[in-house]
Specification:
mainly alpha; two-stranded antiparallel sheet; 7 helices; 2 strands; globular
Length: 157
């Protein structure tokens, strides 16, 4: 097996294992990985328009952002608010239950990150992050992550 092929399959296996573990952990609070990602984005960057949320989603579930949001609205975690000056502008915000669920998602994510921190002890993680960043550069998922990171940093002074 070529090194590149082994790397490809190891990345795929790691992604699937991470998603499997996250799915099991999130089942404790009744949300999917895609729903949890949407909750965290709205919690961290909201209120947001649906397009803004979609621009920051990295998950690849085959679900459109509107379907994810529809489900979160249906269970009372997200609220759609029509703009005061433009009724076409709908903003997504978390309800009180949504804020609580987002906090619980963050706790679960931190448990997963603790597992990852332990697994990478003694390795050059910076080099691996640089490789993955270069590999995903200008891809839809890479761009979504770039937008989310930029939104976290906020405007430059």
């Amino acid at each position: 097996m070529r090194t590149a092929e082994q790397l490809r399959y190891l990345i795929l296996a790691a992604q699937r294992e991470g998603n499997r573990r996250l799915t099991v952990m999130l089942s404790e609070i009744g949300v999917t990985p895609a729903q949890s990602e949407a909750l965290r984005i709205i919690a961290d960057h909201g209120p947001l328009a649906l397009r803004e949320l979609g621009d920051m989603l990295v998950c690849d579930t085959g679900q459109s952002p509107s379907r994810i949001v529809d489900r979160l609205v249906a269970v009372g975690l997200v609220e759609r608010t029509v703009g005061e000056h433009d009724r076409r502008q709908v903003r997504l915000t978390l309800t009180a239950a949504g804020r609580d669920r987002a906090r619980r998602v963050a706790e679960i994510e931190n448990r997963l990150y603790d597992l990852l921190d332990h697994a990478v002890e003694g390795t050059d993680v910076g080099a691996f992050i640089a490789f993955l960043s270069a590999f995903t550069h200008q891809s839809p998922a890479g761009l979504a992550l770039d937008r989310r990171l930029a939104a976290q940093e906020g405007p430059t002074p």
